[in-house]
Amino acid sequence: MGDEISADERAEIGASLVLLAPPRQTNEVVKDVKVLAGQNSLIEGKILRSLLQYAMEQTIQVTLPGSSVNTLVTEHGHLGDGKFLCPRSHKSFRLDLFTHSVADVSSLRPDDRGGGSIKLEPWRAAIEDALTGYMRQNFPNGAVSVFAPADPKNSLIVIYVESSFHQNFRSGRWRSRWTLTIPDEIEGAVCQGSGEIRIQTHIFEEGNVQLLSSKSFKFEVVAKSPEILGREVCNKITECDSDYQQAIGSNLTEMSSKCPRLTGTKLPPIRWAMNWRIPPPSSHPLLPLEVLLVTFVAPSPSRTSFLLFSCTHSSRST
Length: 318
Prior knowledge:
The protein is α+β, with helices and mostly antiparallel strands. It has two domains: 7-88 and 91-107, Ribosomal protein S3 C-terminal domain (2-Layer Sandwich), CATH 3.30.1140.60; 121-247, F-actin capping protein, beta subunit (Aspartate Aminotransferase, domain 1). The protein contains five helices and 13 strands. The chain has helices at residues 7-18, 26-37, 43-57, 121-138, 226-263, and strands spanning 61-62, 71-72, 78-80, 83-86, 91-95, 102-107, 142-147, 156-167, 170-181, 190-203, 209-222, 289-290, 295-296. α1 (7-18) packs parallel to α3 and α4 crosses α5 (226-263). Mean pLDDT is 80; it is low at 267-318.
């Protein structure tokens, strides 16, 4: 038949489905893809390429031996040949794309090549230290990695944040990427920052519904010293997280009434709680959200709860 799909096309389509895997569900998707693709010798290589792309796009967490803090697999940490950089520990590692375990760990100091910029290392480390404290307080399951790529024509510090969960019939991921443009003379200079926050949630009990959302931000900070820059960048990201949380809340009521009608699916009223406590900046009061699949909670005199797909509002002391 002229319309029959070739083995190569079937493998390509199957591998592309891996890129659509919900948070922490790649293994399940890969198993299903192999069943759908059938006995196809081409599928393994294409799946591996998709898993590599997925790992970098979703900034998955990995644990290096002897480390108490996870690192993120990212585009800026990719060294080629299956190896990645952990900028915090100054080590390179090889990633198993199926199990997300690491091997072949070796030292890689800032060297103006794969190890990152020597000049920007104090500033990079100060930003990472400040954001690590922020993550411990507000994203218990999260991780942050900060890179200072060695590029003489374009000095940047790039920040990645990721937090995800998979429990019972629901999963979710919060991730963000921030870029700080660094002038030639950094000390005392104004640095332009930009970034994007993305969330994805998935519920597959009595239905199959996903929520994808993103928001972009811009800000500027003054690099008076590495420590001050670290605090300023952390404060700006805190404000952006707060603004995004409020933006989500302003749309949940409308979504809760429309989405069930669009999907034709009655969703179970089940909540999964992930604590996210962010000290609200004085000019950016944080509105706590309580969302089906993912719950964000912050200390505040009043607490507003929004339940995705089944929306309720309440006010109570915390």
